[in-house]
Amino acid sequence: MEKLYFKVIKLYLNLLSVIAPQHGGKTAINVFLTVRLKKIKEREKAFYSKAKAFTLEPKIVSNSHNIKYYELGEANTKIVFLIHGWNSNAGSLSRFAFELSKTHRVISLDLPAHAHSKGKRTNLFECKEVLKKFIAHINPKETFSIVGHSFGAAVVAYALSETQHHVDKVVLLSANNKLKIIFREFQKMIGFNDTIYNEIEKWIKSIFNLDLEKLILSDFIKKIKFNDLLIIHDKFDKVIPVKSAEEIKKAIPNIKLSVYQKIGHYRMLWNEDVVSETVKFIKE
User: What is the C-alpha separation between 169 and 166, in angstroms, rounded?
Assistant: First the structure.
């Protein structure tokens, strides 16, 4: 069914590229920004059943969504924020949450339009604004740590680059350095032509006043005040190539890069060694 959906979208967008390219670009970006809600897995449900749930009202984060967030651990301990990836949810990082909550106050959220947070579409720019407002709402009194996976890693780096927070430990799991690649992969997946892709780039610049070429994670990271930063990546990651992590390491030599083999892009979130290294890194 999904293959048929993408086939129809491809034909429709390529037709629009001839008769109405601007509309085609807008249609393509709407498809890209639509979150495909997935059923929450049993192992993720454990997190939701044990964590304390809260709601951020739209007036707090200045967007149209109610944002759900969750806490584990003692309130008077150091904070660790956990930020999940695209089409995912706060429960996807539950193994990290349960381990870290033994010594830290763990705070996680469902990003806009994901899981229990309201909405159908979102984007990197909205999510980084929500994260900035969310951290301001929590108002940490001392340095905190933060973990981001995939799209969540981009949200973390982008948001923190625009704040004055001094962060203790930052962990980026499967981070994509050049965010333009995401849109090229989307083009490849759907199969629309360069006319539509160029309209997407124009739309992004008109709305956010940013060139895709300038959305580079390592540039964001250089603006963050942090004590230590760890990147974990799978050598054979099929979603985000390990070259991305290597580019970040080359741009910022003083960070730590751990490359694993055959732990996958999503499976790494349940890998004992990845969880253990992350927890140890944050506790050091």
Answer: 10
Q: At what angle do helices 124-138 and 151-160 cross, to 10 degrees?
A: 60
The predicted model scores a pTM of: 0.92
Percent of the chain with pLDDT over 90: 65
- CB–CB of 72/51 below 8 Å? yes
- CA 52 from chain centre, in angstroms, equals 22
- Domain extents in the chain: 1-34+184-206, 50-179+215-283
Q: Which CATH architecture has domain 50-179+215-283?
A: 3-Layer(aba) Sandwich (3.40)
CA distance 144 to 94: 19
In degrees rounded to 5, what are phi and psi of residue 53? -100, 140
From residue 241, how far is each of 55, 174, 185, 213, 249 by CA, in Å?
Answer: 35, 9, 12, 18, 14
Residue 144: other Cβ atoms inside 10 A: 20
Residue with tokens 């680059």: 161
Q: Say how far apart CA 279 and CA 273 lie, in whole Å.
A: 10
pLDDT tens readout for residues 220-259: 999 999 999 999 999 999 989 999 999 999 999 999 999 9
